[in-house]
Design brief:
- The strands form three sheets. A four-stranded antiparallel beta sheet has the order 3-4-5-8. Strands 7-6-9-10 form a four-stranded antiparallel beta sheet.
- The N terminus is likely disordered.
- It has two domains: 168 residues, Sandwich (Immunoglobulin-like), CATH 2.60.40; 126 residues, Four Helix Bundle (Hemerythrin (Met), subunit A).
- Helices cover 37% and strands 28% of the residues.
- Helix 6 packs antiparallel against helix 8 and helix 7 crosses helix 8.
- By secondary structure, it is an alpha+beta fold.
Length: 330
């Protein structure tokens, strides 16, 4: 089987009809599919998988094609496509449909396998298009890798679809294969990741506190996570700075750090060291909010910088919320 590349059947013998010749071909030769057409460098989102010379199945992605739902150690991944039979045949054979899901930021290169998908039962398509769902599993690690591969851009998904059915007289295995592509905008992908809580770089659990200021800080961390997914790095760092300002105000870290800094570092107690850490993170984040001549105006922020600072601030915020619940000082 070669995705999207038709393999010709052997020449017809004298007296054979085209269909009889096809029926006598080995199944490997009959696994054919029409390659996706291209439009401005991107595949068209329609695929015709040829089952016979006069019969094909047409596939199109559904409006909201990809869904994630929580599962142990990862997520169930579902892709919805619309399918119809192109011939006027009233009693076509039932088919088994499977697919490999590849993702990347470009439809024609650097695509990587994410998971294998299958429909859980045989499908007998008609001339009227109906929706089918292909399901599979992805681990949290795979989701993180896909998010890193995306790098703040939209994802391009490719379904390598395989169709197998039993048909003909005498009965034989027939089928075909081909590729169906569709894009996953960063916002849509991010919403699905939020449902499973597994694809974000920032994986620190911060419970929503009763303290209104800290609750606002938690929401700012969530917003920063969304912004960094869309590659809005300085905006994400701005939200993170506002979150750490709430930590400073609630824990009084500025006063504690000012008292501690004159001491030799080995003489500082645990509270002082935490306070200095908060103040240092705040100072670093302030560089994203101000363009001071000869200093912060030359700061350059990478995606890794933003991820590190958001994760650090989320951890500091989670620690403060937990200690407030326990009634202990920062």
């Amino acid at each position: 089987m070669h995705g999207g590349q038709a393999v010709p059947a052997p020449p017809a013998r004298s007296g054979d009809t085209p269909q009889e010749s096809l029926d006598k071909a080995p199944v490997q030769q009959r696994m054919t599919g029409s390659p996706p057409a291209r439009n401005e460098g991107r595949p068209m989102t329609t695929l015709h998988v040829n089952l016979a010379s006069n019969e094909a199945l047409a596939f199109e992605p559904a409006r909201h094609a990809l869904r994630l739902t929580p599962a142990v150690g990862g997520a169930q991944l579902q892709v919805s496509v619309r399918i119809r039979r192109t011939s006027e045949r009233t009693e076509g054979p039932a088919c088994q449909i499977t697919a490999a899901l590849l993702v990347g930021t470009n439809p024609s290169r650097s695509r990587q396998l994410l998971t294998q998908l299958a429909v859980g039962h045989a499908i007998n398509p008609g001339q009227v298009a109906t929706d089918i769902t292909l399901s599979g599993y992805v681990s949290d690690e795979q989701l993180r890798a896909a998010e890193q591969l995306r790098g703040g851009q939209d994802l391009w998904a490719t379904l390598q679809i395989f169709v197998i059915c039993v048909d003909g007289d005498p009965v034989q295995l027939v089928g075909g294969t081909g590729e169906l592509g569709f894009d996953l905008p960063s916002g849509e992908w991010g919403q699905e990741l939020d449902k499973v809580d597994g694809g974000s770089y920032v994986e620190v659990l911060v419970p929503l506190p009763d303290n209104a200021e800290l609750a606002t800080a938690v929401r700012r961390i969530r917003k920063a996570r969304t912004l960094v997914r869309d590659n809005h790095l300085e905006e994400a760092l701005g939200e993170t700075r506002k979150a750490i300002e709430a930590i400073r105000a609630a824990a009084g870290t500025l006063t504690i750090a000012q008292t501690a800094r004159p001491k030799p570092s080995k003489e500082r107690d645990q509270q002082e060291r935490w306070a200095i850490m908060v103040e240092d993170v705040f100072g670093l984040l302030s560089g994203a909010a101000h363009d001071d001549p000869e200093t912060t105006e030359h700061f350059d922020w990478s995606r890794a910088d933003a991820v590190a600072l958001i994760a650090t601030t989320a951890g500091l915020l989670g620690r403060l919320v937990e200690r407030e619940r326990q009634g202990t000082s920062y």
